[in-house]
Each structure stands twice: as C-alpha cells, then as structure tokens.
Amino acid sequence: MNQLLREVDERAQLAGTNKFELLVFRLGTDPKINSRELFGINVFKVREALVMPKITPMPGAPEHVMGVANIRGQIIPVINLPEVVGCKTDGLNILLVTEYERSVQGFAVEDVEEIVRLEWSRVLSAESASVGGLVTSLARLDEDEETARLALVLDVEHILRQVLPSRFKAGDELVQQHAIEIPKGAVILYADDSGVARNQIEKTLKSLGLAYIGTKTGKEALERLKQLAQDAKTAGIPLRDKVALVLTDLEMPEMDGFTLTRHIKENETLRDVPVVIHSSLSGTANEAHARSVNADGYVAKFLPDDLARAITSVIHSH
Hints:
It contains 9 helices and 16 strands. The protein has helices at residues 2-5, 81-85, 156-163, 165-168, 195-207, 218-235, 257-265, 284-292, 304-317, and strands at residues 19-26, 38-42, 46-51, 65-71, 74-80, 94-100, 103-109, 111-119, 123-125, 135-140, 150-154, 187-191, 212-215, 243-248, 275-279, 297-300.
C-alpha cells in the first residue's frame, strides 16, 4: 500500500501543469441507490495508507469518530468515513492518514482501488450537479466522456468541520487588528471550490472591511479577471484600481491554482495584480512551487489572522 504513495514528493512536479493524482477508494454501498460508488481525495493530502491499525475507543468521542490510533508515535483521531457519507460497509480495512489545515487525522475506508493521474479539466464542479455538501467535485477517471467511471471527490474541509468542530472551528474568528487599505472601488478576487472555505474567506474579508468577488474555479476566476481588466481599460484606470489582489485555492475543478497563477503572471495585462495562494495543501514543496509560478504569497488554511497578515504583506509590498 505504501508503495503506491512512496513517490508522493515527485508528484509535486505536476504542480502548474493543471494535473494532479487522485487516490480512489471504496466506502461500501449507498443504501439509497444500492450502489458502490468510487470516492477520491488528492494524493497530496495523504501521508500514508495503512492496513487498519488498532483503534482505541475514546469515551465521549464525537459522532463518527471511532477513537484514536497511534501512528508512528503520533496519536490521531480516526473518522469512520462510510458512516459520514451514509454508506454501509462490509469492513473497514484501510486507514488513510491525511493532513489538512495543519492537522493530522485518519479516515477509515473499506478499500483503496488505485491512484489515477488526471487533468483538472476532467474534474467538474459538483454544485451544478446538486450532489450535496460532502462532495466538492466529480472526476472522470477515464478518457471516454460517455463511458468514463466517475469518482466523487470529497470536501474534506467540510467533513472535518462537521465531525471535529472543536478542532477545526476554534480559529474561525479574527483575534488581532489588521489595517489593510485598497483603492476605493477595488475588490479582492478569490477562487475556491469548497463552500465551507468560501464562507470562511468571505467572513474574514468582511471583518477586514474588504470588498470581494467570489469564484468557484480557477477558470472562472481567470475569466472574471480578464473581464475586470477590460472594464478598467474602458474606464482608463489601472487594473489594480479594480482588483487589489487575487486569492486562490490550489485544488479546483477545470483549472488549479498554480495554473491560474501562471496564466496571470504570464499575461502582460494581468501580471501586476498580486496573487496569494491559500491552500490546505501545506508544506515546503507547495510553497516552492508557488514561488516557481511567481505567486506573491502562500498561506496555509485556515487561520483568519494568518490570511489577514498574508494579504496585508502582499498589498503593502506592491
């Protein structure tokens, strides 16, 4: 199992190519439709996949938390993922150890199928398909659109806030004062496909007194930025008077954040707008790739004060 993930650092080379690798797994049968669906999460978020270790039950644990496991000396909570999504499983055989928003936890799943390399263009937003809040997007695993298998890409940030609210909601409020000034009439343009993340971002920007425009994919953000650039040209004003900063997630359907950033920085009309990458994919590899596509800042999700400091630093340095 770990052989599948041994070369995860090399997969960082996919950054900026609008490609990623999806870990595909099974959770059991959905009793509503009597179907065994495929689910997926980005390999970057998986530290390792293990045969299910010993789980120690914890009295008073939140619903869907099986207990804790000792993984290489680190005690982590273990979440019963089939229960969360409403699947009936024949057994929890694999533990996916993941890192999100600076926190490590395990997801118990029925079985791991494969790792599939995909272009983000083969990943479609789930919101338009009315799939539900636990799924952020749908990935076509095969080339043929008509016969391709679909994997439901889970909104793990949403799940973690639902299952472990004390761990993931404690830092949702600004603690410090931040003075950020942008031109009157200008906005922060942000892109994030997670509904939970969009709510967090908007709450923080409102608290900072900053106007914003929200988009759900890198492609949508780029199209909106080009339209704002055209509006600025028509009005005879600099684009920075329209858009003070672009804030982008990394994992998004159609176009990822690295690719969005590269398109902005390679475009003579758009390149002066600063870009801050905002992602739950923390780590030095991603920060290095952010620099390689000329991003102006990188901040790991989600602490409002860290986000505010990153925005302040980048705006004040431009």
